[in-house]
Amino acid sequence: MSCWETIADYGLRSIGIGERLLPRSDFTLCQQVTLIGSGMLWNIYFGVFALASGFFLATAVAVGKAARNRWIRKPSEWFIFLFRGSPLFIQFFFAYFLFLSLKSQFAFFDPFTAAWLGALIVLFLNTAAYSGEIFYGAYRAIPRGEVEAADAYGLSGWARFRRIIWPTMLRLAWPAYTNEAIFLFHATTLVFFSGFPAWQQRGDALYYASYFADKTFNPFVPYPILAGFFILVTLCIVALFGWVNRRLNRHLPQEARPKMRFRMNLIR
Amino acid sequence: MFAYCADPATLDTLPWLSCFLTTGVHFAFYAAFIKVVLLLAITAPVALAFGFAGAMTARSRILPVSWLGKGYISIVRGVPDIAFFLFFVIALDQGFEYLRHVVLCPDWDQPVRQGNDFLVCPAAKLPLGTAPEWQHEFYGFFLAVITFALVFGAFAANVLYGAMRSVPRGQMETAEAYGMSRRQAFWRIMVPQMWVYALPGLSNLWMVLVKATPLLFLLGVEDIVYWARELGGTKTPRFTDYPHGDWRMWYFLALLVFYLAFTRVSEVLLERLNTRLSRGQSTITKRAGA
């Protein structure tokens, strides 16, 4: 079987299109690359949707944490503490079993036990908490002068937030937020190892990688393939976020623009 | 455990719960918490040592050696940590067995990899096929510790490497002016001073390490996640005196609370340590992660 046929068969296997049965023996390199790459679709799906939706909640939580009213501040602080203080792995498990017991009482929760929705919700809340903390730090670092200038121009309330505070906050938070995005993509690999079942063996990249490692008892092929895919995704994120970063900072003189510095250790 | 536990079916909620929570399997569950703490207590110093070695290697003046150190630091960044965990457990196991195979069975002529099998001579198996159960468990735990230490050592190396570079230049110049050799200056001036700069990063790392402990489950160790899944599952009266429905949600809620408390306490303690260490130091204690 040629490699093109393998790609045609397994390229979209992770979303249920193509050959139903996974290869059982005599794994070729092509099969491993194709299936693991097909699993990446799930990682990208989780990462993109969680980031995109989490962004808005993160902004709200960051502003909430900086609010003077304690009825707004306290819930925001607790939300951030709850999701940053506990392991994502445990959050997945808890959410899965929570949805499972809700499902037995209300039919409405039926889709929540599937990874595509349930895990997405957990990732959405989780990234909202982590980015919320980043945005909060940036919010507090907004130069006083900018806010005062906005006041002097007669901007207030929503207009001041929308045109002055929010863009500055994003600008300051962006390097750290890029990092958060990278680690969110890494965190998506936990989904199918934490209760959420991979229905009909439709799993993510790590699911297939560990499938091959278990079957061949040789970790030296599938995991480097997985690593390669993730490095590729990381490079794409860096390029995309770097472009946004340049746009956010385009009004600044050349030397005042913050360099993108990559920090790590945000594993949840 | 208590005398009144003889017939649980007749008990009220509260005594029933007190009996239920003190059954033998529950003590295994509580022991698993100790396992987690033990893993942390062993891994943290080992990872720090790995990190120190890594940072020293990265600072080396011999180029290939410094590349080795920098490679070690950067390789863990681009790839999900859980992939490393899954990878290292098998890779280390096979590595050890292969080394033993080469040493113990020199006249073994078959290849080690045959299709989908990894075959070493019986004498090289780790632990030996005849070994008692505790040795298997111990070996699993040992592999987990090494894996954690390898991955987190890379993170620690990054933090320490940054901290070493933050020690003010003047300090090192003064050491040179006093006639210290490069090695003396490193051990007597740089190492004692770098901790203050490393502490914010190391505290962060500690939190990350605490939150990574549930991954022990993936390494095949019977840890709290394993027991929570086991104990929480539906129990029918046929097999147990304490039948209950699907309680896994509550077990995982307990784990969630455990971790929240653990990270909160660590946070407070590390904050105190930080104020104590930076007393009298003219540093801006910045939240530098790297």
In what range is the share of β-strand residues of chain B? under 5%
**Rg on CA atoms of chain A, Å:** 22 Å
Write down the CATH class of chain B. Answer: Mainly Alpha
**Largest β sheet strand count, sense and barrel closure of chain A:** none
* N/C terminus separation of chain A: 41 Å
Tally of helical runs of chain A = 9
Structural class of chain A: mainly alpha
The main β sheet of chain B shows up as: 2 strands, antiparallel
> What's the mean pLDDT score of chain A?
88
Overall tally of domains of chain B? 1
Protein described:
The complex is a heterodimer of chains A (268) and B (290). Chain A is built from 9 helices and no strands. With 268 residues, chain A is mainly alpha-helical. In chain A, helix 2 (29-65) crosses helix 5 (115-140) and helix 5 (115-140) crosses helix 7 (157-187). Chain A starts with a helix and ends in a 20-residue tail after the last helix. In chain A, 44% of the residues are buried. With 290 residues, chain B is an all-alpha fold. Helix content of chain B is 67%, strand content 1%. In chain B, strand 1 and strand 2 form a beta hairpin. Chains A and B meet through helix 4, helix 7, helix 8 and helix 9 of A and helix 4, strand 2, helix 5, helix 7 and helix 8 of B.
Topology, please?
The complex is a heterodimer of chains A (268) and B (290).
Chain A: H1 3-10, H2 29-65, H3 70-84, H4 88-103, H5 115-140, H6 144-152, H7 157-187, H8 205-216, H9 222-248
Chain B: H1 13-20, H2 24-58, H3 63-75, H4 81-104, E1 113-114, E2 117-118, H5 133-166, H6 169-177, H7 182-212, H8 224-232, H9 248-277
Antiparallel strand pairs in B: 1-2
Helix pairs in contact in B: 2-3, 2-5, 2-8, 3-5, 4-5, 5-7, 6-7, 7-9, 8-9
Compact summary:
The complex is a heterodimer of chains A (268) and B (290). Helix content of chain A is 68%, strand content 0%. A two-stranded antiparallel ribbon of chain B has the order 1-2.
